[in-house]
Write a structure and sequence with these properties.
Rossmann fold, globular
């Protein structure tokens, strides 16, 4: 059940990701489900932009709570995904417009963006559309438009979906983590953390919404690269050194294209490198946001 923003406002500062209430807000004919927590003391809010097929419950509690220890953190379901209403978008540009609608409905004049995977692509579109709205960005497990292997993410994702079904595992064990002992253990721990919230969990993504997002990824991967030299904001780019979904070469490419970027590559880690190394990532993210 969704709580009203007014009823939940007093609870968000002390809440953790596993128990913070889900709220809703309407903008441009869409009702967005979101969760909000952390230090709402006038600092720049950190808006989280989520990955392919993800809903609110796919965010790592250690990362969200780690950021919320010092920042005002907000995560929301994309239009037509999870508990948000409307028809799902099938382009990154539309997802960015929806993100902008949500941010403005919340009344934020400036935000920091943290985009993981597909969310990092949405973040790039947001900053290109309205650069004055964005103070800093964290782009993890993602790449630029036209980047290597992005147009074929559907093939990788669906292959691992079949592989996981045949072995009785969660697809994220294959998609996000390496098959080394360290990677397998990290994947198991991550999946356990995603189950820590037991009450008022989000709705899973519908099949048609997943298909729409795959269409957006294919189009993004085939799109002509944007001129990212115009992005003057500081950017933290992070990934694992063996990303199968959005090949790690894209992270190096992003860091080169962005004039004010710093790059973190985690060893023996895949697409979910920030989840595998969550303690180090939170430390680096907090230092980056504090500067």
């Amino acid at each position: 059940m969704l709580a009203s923003p007014l009823a939940a406002a007093s609870d968000t500062a002390a809440a953790t990701w596993k128990d913070v209430p889900t709220q809703s807000i309407s903008a441009d004919g869409v009702t967005y489900a979101y969760r909000e927590l952390g230090r709402q003391n006038g600092g720049t809010p950190v808006v989280l932009l989520v990955h392919l097929a993800a809903v609110l419950d796919n965010w790592d509690p250690r990362i969200v709570d780690g950021l919320a220890a010092r920042h005002h953190v907000i995560a929301f379901d994309n239009r037509g995904v999870g508990a948000s209403s409307g028809s799902p978008a099938n382009t990154m540009e539309q997802m960015a417009d929806d993100a902008l609608s949500f941010i403005k409905a919340k009344g934020f004049k400036q935000v920091d963006l943290f985009g993981f995977s597909m969310g990092g692509m949405i973040a790039q579109e947001v900053v290109l559309k309205e650069p004055q709205l964005v103070r800093r960005m964290i782009l993890a497990g993602t790449g630029p438009a036209g980047g290597e292997g992005i147009s074929t993410v559907a093939g990788v994702a669906n292959y691992d979906l079949i592989r996981a079904t045949l072995t009785g595992q969660d697809p994220k064990q294959y998609l996000f983590f390496t098959r080394t002992p360290a990677g397998i253990d990290a994947g198991k721990a991550f999946l356990q953390r995603l189950q820590e919230r037991t009450d008022n969990r989000d709705r899973d993504i519908a099949v048609w919404a997943y298909v729409s997002q795959l269409q957006a990824l294919k189009a993004w991967g085939e799109k002509r690269p944007a001129n990212l030299s115009t992005v003057k904001q500081p950017v933290l780019v992070a990934n694992g050194d063996d990303d199968r979904m959005v090949p790690t070469s894209n992270s190096y490419d992003l860091a080169k294209r962005l004039p004010n970027a710093q790059l973190v590559i985690y060893p023996d880690a895949g697409h979910g490198g920030i989840f595998q190394h969550h303690a180090d990532f939170v430390s680096k993210a907090l230092a980056f946001l504090a500067n």
